[in-house]
Design a protein that fits this description.
The complex is a heterodimer of chains A (318) and B (305). Chain A is α/β, with parallel strands linked by helices. Chain A is built from ten helices and 13 strands. Chain B has one domain. Chain B has twelve helices and no strands. Classes of the chains: A alpha/beta (318), B mainly alpha (305). Chain A binds chain B through residues 51, 54-58, 73, 75, 77-79, 81-83, 85, 87-91, 93-94, 102-103, 105-108, 150, 154, 156, and chain B through 2-3, 5-6, 9, 13, 17, 20-22, 141-153, 302-305.
Chain lengths: 318, 305
């Protein structure tokens, strides 16, 4: 069996800003395509990692191999990576159309095909009416969508999106997510976001950064396997006795209730995993005479995130 | 091939953006305004018949020589008396300056020469206006981050340097053409036949003079991410170097060589009557420009953007 090919390989990456350690000993291999989420608290090092991969910051220690190139920023990578930086702004005194055409020219695309591509992508992000205006007239959300549009202009093999849906209304956020899904079928999309519910439905893999360290990485299932949250809805109000009975199960880590609902965190780390844990829970509910009207998977990524980001404080000796 | 194309694209972008951005328009407007004002300043005494062309030639030959002797730090303590300097220019070790001054104002059209000499002093202070935001503006607003995935850092820097140079040269051509036409109309004694060849020489001199100063502007723009700091650094060093060398020379003469950190010490030779001195001065300008450009490249390639 051949080893899976990796678009980005990061090995022992470290980065400092003066004496402050921003990233420490990061090693991570990212797949050829799909959507990868990068999550972590504010100041954890997500944007620094993005900036190093994009070549905005120079690698101080460690290695980043991208598409076979030994380091970011090499000429061979030009046009193969699309980046939506978090805090970059477009020139205010030039029309959006001119700016995007200029970026496409750098990608080697000119003339009518360049124009049609700009119009198509601007329509895709819902900004087709703004194309002849200057960037200064755009709202914050529009600016975000323009950033996404420019990152996908040249049909890159890798797309880095730093909080692309932050500040967008639900309809526009959904539009961008659909766009990312589409792009993720043929390219690697790395997206950082604080919206974990949104990410959970979107991403194939995830990396969790805390205090400059990559504390977990892999598929969403791998990262969230230890604990899974389920929302159980009953036909009768939840009683304290029910709570005690459920809490006593080995597979249950914690349980909370709210009227007709229970939030149950299952421990799926046993040999038989989630299936056995769920079976035990459902059997118990039947035994109690309170079968579940609805059983829905809850915010497991959020739960895993909370566990991972709070772990160093809770278990300093580990 | 791709790199050359990118350099060309960045150069065109700088030129077209200069026509629309605030600092670019200010640079073009100020350069034209100040350039034409200088020409007008030179011509006005003749127009108003306050002085004849011959009198101007005579007085300016001496004045230019004295100014240059002082500016290039060749006037000694005993030269407080203007007569001593004049005699040194006519007979002594400053004879080359005397010959140079006469070549400019007697053998060639005096009004154009004086205008170009003044431009040679003013341009180094104006040129930073055209280059201080070229790199730092995009770094400050992080706009450069949209470019970095698509093009190399060296293409950006060299392209923008080239664009700034072309813009500066275009302005100089425009200024010289305007001055030549103005002089030929206003002063009948200055004929186009005399003016055009000399304007060509003057353009070459200003062409080479532009290279180190634009490169210095690019170096400061690549070093400082805040455009105003880049502008202050460029203008400050352009003014500061001659002032510093003049004052330090009095403490210890070799410190006067600080003048050669910038082309101030040799740029007058770009209009020398001797061909080899012109070639030497042009080569120094090129080397100076190349040095600043290489330093800017090193800085920009290593910078965190």
């Amino acid at each position: 069996m051949s080893e899976p090919q990796h678009t980005i390989q990061i090995e022992n990456l470290e980065h400092r800003f003066g004496t402050k350690v921003a990233l420490s000993n990061i090693s991570w291999r990212l797949p050829q395509k799909g959507i990868v989420g990068l999550v972590g608290p504010n100041g954890a090092g997500k944007t620094t990692l993005f900036s190093l991969i994009a070549g905005f910051l120079r690698v101080q220690s460690g290695k980043i191999k991208i598409l076979g190139s030994s380091s970011p920023g090499q000429a061979s990578l030009a046009g193969r990576m699309g980046v939506m930086p978090q805090d970059a702004i477009f020139a205010k005194d030039i029309s959006i159309l001119d700016q995007l055409l200029y970026l496409l020219k750098l990608d080697g695309i000119t003339g009518a095909s360049a124009e049609s591509r700009v119009f198509a992508i601007m329509k895709r992000v819902g900004l087709e009416k703004e194309i002849h205006r200057g960037a200064s007239t755009l709202s914050h959300g529009m600016g975000k969508r323009l950033g996404v549009a420019q990152s996908l202009l040249g049909l890159p093999e890798i797309v880095l999106l730093d909080e692309p849906t932050a500040g967008l209304d639900p309809a526009n956020a959904r539009q961008i997510r659909e766009f990312m899904r589409e792009v993720g079928k043929s390219a690697l999309v790395i997206v950082s976001s604080h919206n974990l519910i949104e990410l959970q439905d979107l991403i194939d893999e995830v990396g969790v950064i805390v205090d400059g360290k990559l504390v977990a990485s892999g598929t969403v299932e791998e990262v969230t396997q230890r604990d899974r949250r389920f929302e159980v809805t009953f036909g009768v109000p939840v009683t304290p006795e029910m709570l005690v009975q459920i809490d006593q199960l080995d597979a249950v880590q914690s349980v909370n209730s709210d009227s007709y609902q229970m939030s149950i965190d299952l421990d799926a780390s046993g040999e038989t995993g989630l299936d056995q844990a769920l079976l035990t829970l459902q059997q118990k509910l039947v035994d109690l005479g309170t079968p579940a009207y609805e059983l829905r998977e809850g915010a497991s990524l959020e739960q895993a995130y909370m566990r991972l980001t709070s772990a160093p404080k809770n278990t300093p000796e580990e | 091939m791709n790199k050359t194309r990118h350099i060309g694209l960045h150069a065109i972008k700088v030129i077209s953006h200069s026509m629309r951005s605030g600092s670019g328009v200010a640079f073009i407007f100020l350069t034209i305004l100040i350039g034409l004002s200088l020409a007008n300043l030179v011509v006005t005494p003749i127009e108003l018949e306050l002085i004849t062309v011959e009198e101007l030639q005579d007085s300016s030959a001496r004045a230019i020589g004295i100014a240059l002797a002082t500016a290039t730090l060749r006037a000694s303590d005993g030269d407080d008396n203007q007569g001593t300097l004049t005699s040194r220019m006519e007979n002594g070790d400053l004879i080359d300056l005397g010959m140079w001054a006469r070549y400019l104002v007697i053998e060639n059209p005096v009004l154009l020469s004086i205008t170009v000499l003044l431009l040679g002093v003013v341009l180094p202070l104006l040129l930073p206006l055209g280059s201080f935001t070229v790199i730092s503006g995009d770094v400050q607003h992080r706009t450069v981050r949209y470019l970095l995935p698509r093009t190399s850092r060296s293409s950006i820097l060299i392209g923008r340097w080239l664009g700034s140079m072309i813009l500066a040269w275009s302005l100089i051509i425009f200024l010289l053409c305007s001055v030549v036409i103005y002089l030929s109309i206003m002063i009948p004694s200055e004929s186009l036949e005399d003016l055009i060849p000399w304007a060509g020489r003057c353009f070459l001199a200003l062409f080479f003079l532009t290279i180190p100063y634009v490169s210095l502007g690019i170096l400061c723009s690549a070093t400082f991410s805040v455009p105003m700091v880049a502008l202050l650094a460029t203008v400050g060093s352009t003014i500061g170097v001659p002032l510093l060398s003049l004052s330090l020379q009095e403490a210890w003469e070799p410190l006067g060589n600080l003048l050669y950190l910038l082309p101030w010490g040799y740029s007058h030779e770009l209009l020398s009557p001797t061909t080899h001195k012109v070639v030497e001065a042009s080569a120094y300008c090129l080397l100076h420009g190349l040095l600043f450009l290489i330093l800017a490249l090193l800085k920009f390639r290593r910078a965190d953007l």
